[in-house]
Design a protein that fits this description.
alpha/beta, TIM Barrel, eight-stranded parallel beta barrel, three-stranded mixed beta sheet, binds beta-D-fucopyranose
Length: 451
């Protein structure tokens, strides 16, 4: 299903039918890591490696969403969202990545999807949010060209089982983050740091995306397919020429290594040269398949600096000391978000859904009355919401907005130290407390809808 053509509206600002949602991902919230036949993923492995996760924690239990999904649907209903973006756990459905399926895993997502539909919430499913089955990593993971076929087979299973009820699918979440941090900079699973491995992973993930799009298109009636990219302006730290060069290369890796081949049919110049040995005849056409929307995850710009100790010679630089904080409590750059939305519309010409935007921090805690008053998050969301409206007013084709995240959860290498939720989770008791920002978001949605 192609996205509806954009309608015009008398209401200033947002197009009619604008979609409001919240996002999560499987490994970050489900827990039940060794239950009901789920196989291990590369993140289960990383959590057990010394230094793999800052606070030594794991996703074994996390928010226990596997058992508490009905309560979590209730929380979404209370906020009043239109849609819920979640990811399917590949190792819960196919414990070793290929071969035998896990019926209990299939049943879990049936219950989740049916619960969402009964609550009037549209399910938006991402096929891959970083939790590759360990069994596939043992075969080389994304460095193995067969990985595109493994992903396509997994997509067939998902499409056949859920395609009657789920119509919005994204192939991958943040292609460049998990490939760069997993295969070039050791910040994510599987923790490889090697140029050739990284280049192969980039190309094979792109091939997997194209194969996944073809599967979903052919098996899911009325499907709407997207891909979710993190795009963030890359600026050099200071004005040194070597930092400018570092920023230019990081920009290719972070912002263009995936959307350009998928949507324009070519790699950006420096990557194109390096990746050529791994590109076979016909590959670019396999990667560049028509999709229906562009999913943007955006948090802020990146500052780059030259760092010869790193795989590609670039590293992360410092944010300028005088950067504006807009009352949030740390530097934020909403105008960069506005410009990014405009640039996306211009460069790729697809409807845009903001599939993640939100605000972390380690300060959220219940007060003496048991309330969690997260004023900094409300301020952040207000400012970014205004930037989105400014972009739309200037011509950006934005159709929806999802807050990251519904729940405080397992924040990858930061463990449980960073809370991004609209809902506070007391991990020892699993008690959920909607924060002030959950109330603010619900009010905003009702105001925007005029209900
Ligand atoms: C994004 C990830 C998401 C979460 C947020 C804070 O990069 O897609 O899983 O970690 O950042």
């Amino acid at each position: 299903m192609a996205e509806r053509p954009r309608e015009t509206s008398d209401r200033p600002g947002l197009p009619p039918g604008f979609l409001w949602g919240v996002s999560t991902s499987a490994y970050q919230i489900e827990g039940a890591a060794a239950e009901d036949g789920r196989g291990p993923s590369i993140w289960d492995t990383r959590c057990r490696m010394k230094g793999g996760v800052g606070d030594g924690s794991t996703g074994d239990v996390s928010c226990d969403h596997y058992h508490r999904y009905a309560e979590d649907i209730g929380l979404m209903k209370a906020i009043g969202v239109d849609a819920y973006r979640f990811s399917l756990s590949w190792p819960r459905l196919l414990p070793t990545g290929k071969g035998p399926v896990n019926p209990a895993g299939l049943d879990f997502y049936d219950r989740l999807i049916d619960g969402l539909l009964n609550a009037g919430i549209e399910p938006w499913a991402t096929l891959y949010h970083w939790d590759l089955p360990q069994g596939l990593d043992d075969l080389g993971g994304w460095t193995n060209r067969d990985s595109a076929g493994w992903f396509a087979d997994y997509a067939v299973l998902v499409a056949r089982r859920y395609g009657d009820r789920v119509k919005h699918f994204a192939t991958f979440n943040e292609f460049s983050v998990f490939t760069l941090f997993g295969y070039a900079i050791d910040w994510a699973a599987p923790g490889v740091t090697d140029r050739a491995a990284h280049l192969k992973a980039i190309h094979h993930v792109n091939l997997a995306h194209g194969a996944g799009v073809d599967v979903l298109r052919s098996l899911v009636p009325d499907v709407s397919i997207g891909a979710i990219h993190n795009r963030q302006l890359v600026l050099p730290e200071g004005d040194k020429p070597e930092n400018r060069a570092a920023a230019a290369l990081l920009d290719e890796h972070w912002n263009r290594a995936f959307p350009d081949p998928q949507l324009l049919g070519c790699y950006p110049p420096q990557i194109a040269e390096a990746i050529a040995p791994y590109v076979a005849a016909g590959d670019m056409a396999r990667i560049c398949r028509p999709i229906d929307w562009f999913g943007l995850n955006h948090y802020g710009p990146i500052f780059a600096k030259a760092d010869p100790t790193k795989t590609w010679g670039f590293g992360w630089g410092e944010t300028p000391a005088d950067a504006p904080d807009h009352g949030v409590g740390w530097p934020i750059f909403p105008e960069v978000f506005r410009d990014e939305l405009l640039e996306l519309t211009r460069r790729y010409g697809l409807p845009v859904y903001i599939t993640e935007n939100g605000c972390g921090g380690d300060r959220d805690a219940p007060d003496a009355d048991g309330r969690v008053i997260d004023g900094h998050r409300i301020r952040y969301l207000e400012v970014y919401h205004q930037a989105m409206r400014d972009a739309i007013a200037a011509g950006a084709d934005v159709r929806g907005y999802f807050v990251w995240s519904l729940l405080d959860n397992f924040e990858w290498g930061s463990g449980y130290g960073q809370r991004f939720g609209l809902v506070y989770v007391d991990f020892p008791t699993q008690k959920r407390i909607p924060k002030a920002s959950a109330g603010w978001y619900g009010d905003l949605i009702r105001k925007e809808r005029g209900t």
